[in-house]
UniProtKB/TrEMBL annotation:
Protein name per the record: Serine O-acetyltransferase
InterPro entries in the cross-refs: Ser_O-AcTrfase, Trimer_LpxA-like_sf
Length: 159
């Protein structure tokens, strides 16, 4: 069993009745904002202590999600009061990797990032993805598929 990082350990303890507020303040020292309402699955990995990472309260992270520093997951309409926003939730399915500086912002409804998808560094993703895709750019667009990348890497290693 691998050791959990201090930041990840704090994220899982942010809902504690006794220490919740203290944990939120400790995360803030790392520049992280992870509301108690955000749903976090098992196996979360946070690299570089997650400096500058912000999750919206209506965020769901599946199992084995990886977040790098500077990630923002939230609404595309922050000027609208939350209760008037058309955004309902952002869901990152199992195995998603969100690279440094990426922004995932939902305009309306539910934005779903498919299982095993990679959102590239500094990408601005504003729409749902399928499973196993690679998205990059501003605005983000699909630039590849993970399975093909792995297969090409294996073929190159064999030759």
């Amino acid at each position: 069993m691998s050791a959990m990082s201090l930041v990840t350990s704090l994220i899982y303890r942010r809902r504690s009745r006794l220490f919740g507020r203290l944990v939120q303040e400790a995360l803030a020292l790392y520049g992280m904002e992870v509301p108690a309402a955000a749903e976090i699955g098992p196996g979360l990995v946070v690299f570089h202590r997650g400096f500058g990472t912000v999750l919206h309260p209506y965020t769901t992270l599946g199992a084995n999600v990886t977040l790098y520093n500077g990630v923002t997951i939230g609404r595309a309409d922050p000027w609208v009061p939350q209760e008037s926003s058309a955004m309902r939730r952002v869901v990152l399915e199992d195995g998603v990797t969100v690279c440094a500086g990426a922004k995932i912002v939902c305009k309306s409804g539910v934005l779903t990032v498919g299982a095993d998808t990679v959102v590239g560094a500094n990408a601005v993703l504003t729409r749902s993805t399928g499973p196993g895709e690679i998205w990059a750019g501003v605005p983000a667009r699909k630039v590849g598929e993970r399975n093909r990348v792995h297969e090409q890497g294996r073929a190159a290693a064999v030759n």
